[in-house]
Specification:
- The protein is α+β, with helices and mostly antiparallel strands.
- It contains seven helices and 18 strands.
- The strands form six sheets. The protein has a five-stranded mixed β-sheet.
- The protein is elongated and about 115 Å long.
- The structure holds zinc ion.
- The site of zinc ion (ZN) has 8 residues, from loops.
Length: 317
């Protein structure tokens, strides 16, 4: 990428250096690793801190390679790196046959480590940096241009060593403190890292199973029925409204019941044959219907039937 500024170079002693580490201009003594052209350290102003080629403007100087190297060096010198959250979920069938679900969580935070080593040869894979964490060895992969390839990922999974991947992106003009920018991005940035192989999987899985509990019961769309002799009212809560449906095995519904439904604020919907109530009135309506049911239970069947007949004849044209 020719647009990427080269902010690191190799000095005559073979050491990785940032622009601010060397003398300004050609005096820096750095040579491009790729085309061997002399490099000019540009310490011009706040924005332009980078290495330019003296003659070969076509060469990009491989800034990605050197940035990758700088990131590894930062990890080798540090002793803590930010790791993202780990969440492991497990399901288990209880003795009662019901499935239980649990999870174990490790929040994000700085992970202390020791013994960082670059490019340790694990035969199948050579991680960028290997570190020793409290739970054992761990790999850190730094992606400058490309994420960890599917092939390498498969090998990492096979090894089962926890692996953190950091995607390194720097500001276009990191300014004079290139090392500071790399340290911030490698060690502390939240948004650029993810676990490729999770740590402590077995321990967290056991923890998740120990935490497992029955899922919360789904909200029950309860239907309630109230009986008033040969008239009954069923309440069915919907999303916004409560429907009270009146059923009867008589000529017409007990007028005492339908009369009260209207008096309690129900809006009769002739097309559906229901009274609509506001959902928040459910408890009040249930209490009222319970009381009414007790009252009507005091009436003899003859009284109830008489009332129904009167209502029936009144309703005739
Ligand atoms: Zn070059």
């Amino acid at each position: 990428m020719a647009t990427e500024h080269q902010i690191f170079a190799i000095n005559p002693e073979g050491k990785l250096v940032a622009v601010a580490d060397v003398a300004n201009g050609l005096a820096c003594g750095c040579i491009c690793q790729i085309c061997k052209d002399a490099l000019i350290a540009k310490q011009g102003d706040i924005r332009a801190w980078y290495f330019a080629h003296q003659g070969n403007a076509e060469c990009s100087g491989g800034p990605e390679t050197l940035l990758h190297q700088a990131a590894k060096q930062v990890l080798l010198e540090a002793r803590a790196v930010l790791v993202p959250v780990v969440v492991i979920g497990r399901s288990v069938r209880g003795e009662d046959g019901a499935m239980r679900y649990g999870k174990a969580i490790r929040p994000p935070g700085m992970l202390d480590y020791t013994d960082p080593e670059a490019e340790v040869d694990h035969v199948v894979v050579r991680p960028d940096v290997q570190i020793a964490a409290s739970f054992g060895p761990m790999f850190v992969e730094i992606a400058v241009t490309n994420p960890v390839s599917g092939d390498k990922f498969a090998k990492l999974l096979e090894l089962g060593v926890p692996t953190l991947e950091i995607t390194l992106r720097l500001p276009k003009h990191p300014g004079p403190d290139a090392w500071g920018a790399v340290r911030q991005a490698v060690l502390h940035a939240h948004e650029n890292r993810r676990w490729r192989v999770l740590p402590e999987v077995e321990r967290l899985a056991a923890e998740a199973i120990a935490n497992a509990e029955l899922p919360p019961a789904p909200p029950v769309r309860r239907q309630h029925e109230f009986n008033f002799g040969r008239t009954a009212v069923s309440l069915r809560p919907g999303k916004k409204w409560l429907a009270a449906r009146v059923m009867t095995s008589d000529f017409v519904a007990d007028p005492l019941v339908t009369g009260w439904l209207t008096r309690w604020g129900g809006r009769f919907d002739a097309s559906k044959g229901v009274w609509w109530f506001r959902l928040e009135d459910t408890d009040r309506l249930r209490a009222a219907l319970t009381t009414l049911a007790q009252r009507i239970a005091q009436h003899s069947p003859a009284e109830q039937h008489q009332r129904v007949l009167e209502a029936y004849y009144q309703a005739q044209p």
